[in-house]
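Journal club prep, notes for RB
We'll compare a predicted complex against what the paper describes. Inputs for the histidyl-adenosine monophosphate case:
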Amino acid sequence: MYQAPRGTVDILPAEQSYWFYIRQKAAQTCQLYGYERIDTPIFESTNLFSRSIGKTTDIVEKEMYSFIDKGGKQITLRPEGTAPVCRAYIQHGMQNKPQPVKLYYTTPVFRYERPQAGRYRQHHQFGYEAIGDNDPALDAEVIDMAWFFFESLGLSKLTLLLNSIGCSKCRPEYLTSLRQYYHSYRNKLCVDCKVRLDKNTLRLLDCKKETCLPFAVTAPRSIDYLCHECKEHFRLLGGYLQQLGLPFLVNHCLVRGLDYYTRTVFEIQPQVGGAQSTIGGGGRYDGLIEELGGKSTPALGFASGIERIILNLKKQSVVIPPIHQPQVFIAHTSDRVKNEVTKLASSLRRASVGAFQTTSSKSLKAQLRQANNIGVRYVIIIGDEEIKTGAAILRNMTTGEQDIVSIAELLDKLLCQLQ
Ligand code: HAM
């Protein structure tokens, strides 16, 4: 039997209320903060991702779903949402619009990772990007928006972690110090960290192996190496966050897994579960638009994994509003009246009354059982006799009471009772 590919899941109807709820809250949040929706293709040129995310990152080295298409082009299924939005910003001349340009997306994302709880090979992200402003007040707004979004979903017990990893001016000196520090522990590092030492020094701080963790604690801190501008940016951001009443922790080991970040990086983690269950992360990427061929343009953004949000909503027992199903079921006692049933069902729907109708030839008993299982509030029963008299039986499924109502008055009666 065929199965969904490893690391992917079918989102069945029973789960859809979570997805509907989250997407709705995401759209409402974006409207409140002035973000417009953007949809970019599900695949892009491989180069776009390797150039922006960084050739030595896990995503580019090990996790991308890449292939050569029939025209010989190197293509990759989107492993994240920021680079495509930046590509679209440049391609469509959005630098000529009032800045910052604020865009959001909800989209599937593909990463060939080892599947486990909350980690998939196809997951879905809600993300947003604010492009064209380097003011730390915008960093505060982006972080506040992420916090507001989780709050509006009903999530609590979250931790906001913050760091600044500097810019192209001050980071090289920091990296030299970090490399020197780790070099003295070289023999004690895990195999991956030995490679990181030469290829991606910053990521040494992010190693989750027990044996490497103690080295990160006492490692040099990026905030001690910031240039004047980066230091000022970080100081002002801290001030704004305090004004907003957002409790944050500066975490010197927070460096993120993508190379495009500059200055501000942040993550939101559930208090139980830690880094492995991060529900969202983001930061500044002031060099990315230029790296991709645009004019030098500061920017920042955030993204959150919808599957991880659902995991946390369930853990925290947040009650999700159900998706409304039709409240009326039209049953019939004979195939001869199916015409009338079809007509009635259609006219109810056009008057915004959702209705199920039986299309097959089931016994009335079976139809009523089905209506009961669905949980509708009203059943309309139509038979030969009812057609002759121009009436139908209207049964209230909660009280069990039933009336004979003329078909002409049925709609008004239902509209009144379903309010
Ligand atoms: P990221 O941290 O790689 O950032 O992913 C964002 C979020 O997606 C994570 O915090 C996590 O909730 C979720 N996520 C990541 N990988 C998986 C997975 N394999 N399975 C389930 N959920 C996952 C980015 O992608 C950046 N583009 C965020 C950003 C936007 N930075 C600036 N703007």
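Talking point for the session: The chain has two domains: 13-170+226-315, 328-417.
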